[in-house]
């Protein structure tokens, strides 16, 4: 056993370098910034950052002979944080002028356009034009914050004790403050550090008045006094620690190895193995104030050794005490990969060991072996992944063992020696063909009953990254995704799939709550059409129309979908339609409208229309409504109709926060406080839980949000 562990400890792992670059140039109306992603073997590269609202507004790049390019003009004084996106993965720009910790274990590129222009002018006498993005390695710290200050009053709009009679009674009133102070950069040359302190986490909106617990006079007096005398404690929320250290990471960079260590809520540096994200960007070092991790990245020495070749190799070894996220169990992840021409291979090993320093190598609770390959053959891209788990058990006494349960997973107690070896295996293989007219992907995936990926969450913090990537337990799935572009104006696509049991002698699980089909032979057939219409290319009208639908058919009657008193083997679960337009008007520069059909609830059906418009003075206006209707045999809802109206604007003062004002009645389409409260919370084009959760309530909100 110990020999196997020693072998495992020396396995390497790699993160493929992004072939990227940035340049800036002074122009008449500002500063022109050009992003270049110089790897032509990938498809559909986008750039995203704080200037695009990150992934929500990621901008497509244009493919050229040199690579993928995007150019924009920004005002002088602009500071931009960014990353690239392709194949669904976030990719750091290693050639960025500067970099800054993203809070999720990785780094964002950072461009201070004035600083880059000044550096160019200083290095080239008389230069006024182009500045290439050469990273500055001198010690430099960046101060950041993610802070929200908000006010809300909430009312009940129905009286359930009086046959749901209409009313407008105040339920709660409060002022919230969330604030995180972040410091990142190089404390000394080549000594990176990242510190995040939670200064305030008040987010209940009931500290001024709560109908059941807090009188208005007492709440106002408490708020006014403590805001002056002890604001950090008062706005610390329910945390017993009040203000506390959230993240701590530090390390060093050298010509041989880059080292980083983290503690508490610091996130492990993420990793993507072809189709799968195999180290989750949300995995903490040890949130119970114990644990931590170390990561040794050998890319510097490997890059030097292979500098005269076309081979890109990296290796990472990361012993840690965060195998359970809480910081109670020792573990390891390590991976090694290589890119040779159009071929890329990645091997990763994960291990979960003992819980004390003296038993760390006595027991191996879990070992993951993950292999990935990507190959580009002209217009064809092949991607494959395979996973196998080896499990152990806790020894209570010499004769009694306790089954191991992986942390933050949809897998519960495991069998360390399953009769069916596929129970501990998973795989994903897909082939994509791309041309000017058609894009087609055909794929197959399977997952055994207890196949799992350590360092990936499933169920914690509303993330389901294991089942989203591997599929549900004991299932196999075949799918096709094909789309074609007609006359540069219309894209039509369809994504059918069939999901069935892998081992039909066992339960077939179909969701993350561990519910199983009644019939092991049940097959689920999904047919998901989608389309995009560029109206300007079709009829000369500016604007884009996009739409999609999700429908499912279940093959066995005893597993029919239930909606109220009705049952059916076929269901349209979700559909959406979006129309967006850019305008050249001073007072109205663009808008988008989204319709969402949500039939995912057993009792109620939701129809929503939400809209946003870019108005004068850089104000974004928001307006929408929703209808909540009961399925057959279900009581009518308290509030069948809901609407909202809101507006937000990025201010030029007070460190440039986004100011917002919102009124909701019967529905709430926005993110929760602390998650970007001026942005929509959407699942596709449908409002994520907002109509259902706000039935019978109304609220007014206002506040400021900083992301610096």
What would you report as the Rg, rounded to the nearest angstrom? Answer: 27 Å
Which ranges are low-confidence, i.e. pLDDT below 50, for 5 or more consecutive residues?
Answer: 1-19, 131-136
Reported CATH architecture of one domain: Sandwich
User: What is the residue-mean pLDDT, rounded to a whole number?
Assistant: 88
- Identify the overall geometry: globular
CATH fold naming of one domain: Immunoglobulin-like
Helical content, roughly? under 10%
Number of beta-strand segments: 44
Total helical elements: 8
Q: Biggest β-sheet, characterized?
A: 24 strands, antiparallel, barrel
* Helix/strand/pairing category: mainly beta
CATH superfamily of one domain: Immunoglobulins
Task: Note down, in words, how this protein is organized.
It is built from 8 helices and 44 strands. It has 708 residues and is mainly β. The protein has a domain at 18-93 and 96-134: Immunoglobulins (Immunoglobulin-like). The strands form 7 sheets. The protein has a 24-stranded antiparallel barrel. Strands 3, 4, 7, 8, 9 and 10 form a 6-stranded antiparallel beta sheet that branches. The protein has a 5-stranded antiparallel beta sheet with strand order 5-6-2-1-11, covered by helices on one side. The radius of gyration is 27 Å and the shape is globular. The two termini are 49 Å apart. The model is unreliable at 1-19 and 131-136 (pLDDT under 50).
Task: Please sum up the structure shown.
The chain has about 700 residues and is mainly β. About 10% of the residues lie in helices and about 50% in strands. The relative contact order is 0.08.
């Amino acid at each position: 056993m110990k020999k196997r562990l020693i072998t495992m400890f020396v396995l390497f792992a790699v993160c493929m370098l992004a072939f990227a670059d940035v340049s800036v140039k002074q122009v008449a109306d500002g500063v022109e910034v050009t992003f270049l992603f110089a790897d032509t073997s990938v498809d559909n590269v986008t750039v995203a950052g704080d200037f695009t609202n990150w992934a929500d507004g990621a901008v497509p790049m244009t493919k050229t002979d040199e690579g993928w390019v995007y150019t924009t003009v920004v005002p002088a004084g602009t500071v931009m944080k960014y990353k690239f996106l392709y194949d669904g993965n976030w990719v750091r720009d290693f050639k960025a002028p500067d970099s800054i910790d993203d809070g999720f274990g990785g780094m964002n590129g950072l461009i201070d356009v004035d600083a880059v222009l000044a550096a160019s002018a200083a290095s080239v006498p008389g230069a006024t034009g182009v500045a290439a993005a050469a990273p500055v390695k001198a010690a430099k710290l960046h101060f950041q914050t993610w802070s929200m200050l908000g006010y809300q009053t909430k009312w009940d709009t129905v009286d359930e004790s009086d046959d749901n009679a209409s009313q407008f009674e105040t339920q709660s009133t409060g002022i919230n403050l969330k604030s995180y102070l972040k410091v990142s950069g190089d404390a000394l040359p080549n000594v990176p550090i990242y510190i995040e302190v939670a200064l305030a986490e008040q987010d209940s909106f009931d500290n001024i008045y709560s109908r059941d617990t807090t009188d208005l006079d007492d709440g106002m007096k408490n708020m006014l006094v403590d805001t002056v005398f002890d604001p950090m404690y008062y706005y610390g929320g329910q945390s017993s620690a009040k203000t506390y250290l959230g993240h701590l990471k530090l390390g060093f960079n050298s010509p041989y190895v880059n080292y980083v260590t983290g503690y508490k809520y610091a996130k492990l540096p993420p990793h993507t193995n072809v189709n799968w994200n195999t180290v989750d960007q949300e995995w903490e070092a040890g949130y119970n104030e114990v644990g931590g991790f170390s990561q040794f990245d050998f890319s510097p020495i490997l890059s030097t050794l292979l500098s005269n070749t076309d081979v890109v190799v990296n290796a990472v070894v990361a012993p840690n005490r965060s195998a359970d996220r809480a910081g109670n169990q020792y573990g390891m992840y390590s991976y090694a990969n290589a890119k040779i021409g159009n071929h890329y291979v990645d091997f990763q090993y994960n291990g979960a060991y003992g819980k004390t320093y003296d038993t760390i190598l006595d027991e191996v609770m879990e070992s993951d072996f993950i292999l990935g390959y990507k190959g580009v053959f002209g217009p064809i891209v092949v991607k494959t992944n395979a996973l196998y788990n080896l499990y152990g058990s806790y020894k209570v006494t010499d004769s009694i063992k306790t089954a191991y349960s992986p942390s933050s997973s949809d897998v519960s107690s495991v069998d360390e020696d399953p009769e069916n070896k596929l129970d501990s295996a998973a795989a994903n293989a897909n082939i994509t063909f791309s041309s000017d007219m058609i894009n087609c992907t055909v794929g197959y995936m399977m997952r055994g009953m207890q196949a799992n990926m350590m360092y990936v969450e499933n169920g914690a913090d509303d993330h389901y990254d294991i089942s989203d990537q591997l599929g549900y337990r004991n299932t196999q799935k075949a799918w096709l995704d094909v789309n074609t572009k007609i006359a540069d104006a219309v894209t039509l696509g369809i994504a059918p799939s069939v999901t069935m049991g892998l081992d039909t002698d066992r339960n077939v699980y179909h969701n993350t709550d561990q519910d199983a089909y009644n019939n092991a032979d049940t097959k689920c057939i999904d047919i998901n059409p989608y389309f995009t219409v560029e109206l300007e290319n079709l009829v000369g009208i500016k604007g884009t129309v996009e739409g999609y639908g999700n429908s499912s058919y279940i093959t066995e009657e005893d597993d029919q979908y239930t909606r109220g008193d009705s049952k059916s083997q076929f269901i349209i679960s979700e559909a959406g339609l979006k129309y967006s337009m850019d305008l050249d008007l001073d007072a109205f520069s663009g808008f988008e409208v989204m319709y969402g059909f949500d039939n995912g609830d057993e009792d109620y059906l939701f129809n929503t229309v939400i809209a946003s418009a870019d108005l004068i003075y850089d104000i974004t206006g928001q307006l929408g409504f929703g209808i909540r209707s009961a399925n057959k045999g279900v009581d009518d809802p308290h509030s069948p109709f809901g609407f909202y109206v809101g507006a937000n604007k990025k201010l030029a003062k007070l460190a440039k926060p986004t100011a917002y004002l919102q009124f909701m009645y019967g529905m709430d389409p926005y993110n929760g406080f602390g998650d970007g409260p001026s942005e929509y919370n959407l699942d596709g084009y449908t409002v994520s839980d907002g109509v259902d959760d706000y039935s019978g309530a109304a609220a007014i909100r206002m506040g400021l949000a900083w992301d610096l």
